[in-house]
């Protein structure tokens, strides 16, 4: 069965010029709904990732020992990833555009005695010095809410030669199977893959949010090559078999059959 006719890419792209303020407002308004999730994640003994809780033991997104590493989280939200890096003895900076999300992050970091420098700002243009970090990470932060061409170039600038960037976001397949009204993903192609740029979720009928970005896999690869990043690993994530229900508009059964999330591991050459 064919779903609703997909919007033309140009029509969607034309809706997004003010995505930074749209996303900031959306996250300030939604921040209170993420406090419990944040407390739970900060308190975990070992990290779990993404919407479906895949474990760090399987994925290895963080260096095990981060002693002596300067790390930055781009679009840190409630800061639990930064908390995990602090626990691994990294010196951590975390930037987010939402004052309310940062208020949650700062309050929980204080409860945990974490020593993290939180900054309010745009991860596409941090204002931080060149080559000041060894490791950068984004889990559903800049990785989906920032324009890829902008935040990836900024991450490159911030990293030292040999530095690593790891980022997690939605798999492109989950976007093309998502109806344009924001209702849960189906076993149907709802949007074109060709020329994918992301989606404007601000005016959808089901749970409106902000403007998110994604690219086809070949476009991600072309962009990394253009910037100079080497891809060291690419992971496609599925929901663990014991997961049920629907999360972030994706049914668990869908996410067990198709890759729901992707993780790119990049390296800035020496
Ligand atoms: C899903 S949350 C971050 C994920 C984090 N792991 C968490 O769950 O707390 C997304 C965050 O991206 C932030 N964000 C969106 N656009 C941003 C931008 N241009 N610069 C920095 N942060 C941004 C939002 O304010 C929000 O806090």
TrEMBL record:
<dbReference type="InterPro" id="IPR050508">
    <property type="entry name" value="Methyltransf_Superfamily"/>
</dbReference>
<dbReference type="InterPro" id="IPR029063">
    <property type="entry name" value="SAM-dependent_MTases_sf"/>
</dbReference>
<protein>
    <submittedName>
        <fullName>Class I SAM-dependent methyltransferase</fullName>
        <ecNumber>2.1.1.-</ecNumber>
    </submittedName>
</protein>
<dbReference type="Pfam" id="PF08241">
    <property type="entry name" value="Methyltransf_11"/>
</dbReference>
<keyword id="KW-0489">Methyltransferase</keyword>
<dbReference type="GO" id="GO:0032259">
    <property type="term" value="P:methylation"/>
</dbReference>
<feature type="domain" description="Methyltransferase type 11">
    <location>
        <begin position="73"/>
        <end position="167"/>
    </location>
</feature>
<dbReference type="InterPro" id="IPR013216">
    <property type="entry name" value="Methyltransf_11"/>
</dbReference>
<dbReference type="GO" id="GO:0008168">
    <property type="term" value="F:methyltransferase activity"/>
</dbReference>
<keyword id="KW-0808">Transferase</keyword>
């Amino acid at each position: 069965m064919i779903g609703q006719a997909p919007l033309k890419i140009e029509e969607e792209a034309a809706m997004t010029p003010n995505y930074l303020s749209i996303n900031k407002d959306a996250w300030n308004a939604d921040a209170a709904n993420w406090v419990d999730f944040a407390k739970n994640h900060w308190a975990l003994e070992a990290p779990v990732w993404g919407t479906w809780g895949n474990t760090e033991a399987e994925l290895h997104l963080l260096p095990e020992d981060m002693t002596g590493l300067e790390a930055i989280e781009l679009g840190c939200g409630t800061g639990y990833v930064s908390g995990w890096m602090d626990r691994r003895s990294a010196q951590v900076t975390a930037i987010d555009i939402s004052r309310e999300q940062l208020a949650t992050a700062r309050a929980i970091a204080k409860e945990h005695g974490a020593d993290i420098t939180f900054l309010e700002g745009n991860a596409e243009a941090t204002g931080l010095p060149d080559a000041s970090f060894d490791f950068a990470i984004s889990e559903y932060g800049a990785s989906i809410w920032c324009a890829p061409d902008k935040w990836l170039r900024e991450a490159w600038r911030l990293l030292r030669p040999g530095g690593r960037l790891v980022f997690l976001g939605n798999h492109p397949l989950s976007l093309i199977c998502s109806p344009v009204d924001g209702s849960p993903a189906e076993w149907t192609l709802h949007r074109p893959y060709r020329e994918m740029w992301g989606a404007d979720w601000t005016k959808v009928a089901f749970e409106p949010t902000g403007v998110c970005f994604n690219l086809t896999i070949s476009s991600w690869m072309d962009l990394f090559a253009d910037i100079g990043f080497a891809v060291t690993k690419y992971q496609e994530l599925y929901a663990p078999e014991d997961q049920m229900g629907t999360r972030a508009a994706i049914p668990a059964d869908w996410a067990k059959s198709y890759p729901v999330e992707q993780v790119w591991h990049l390296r800035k050459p020496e």
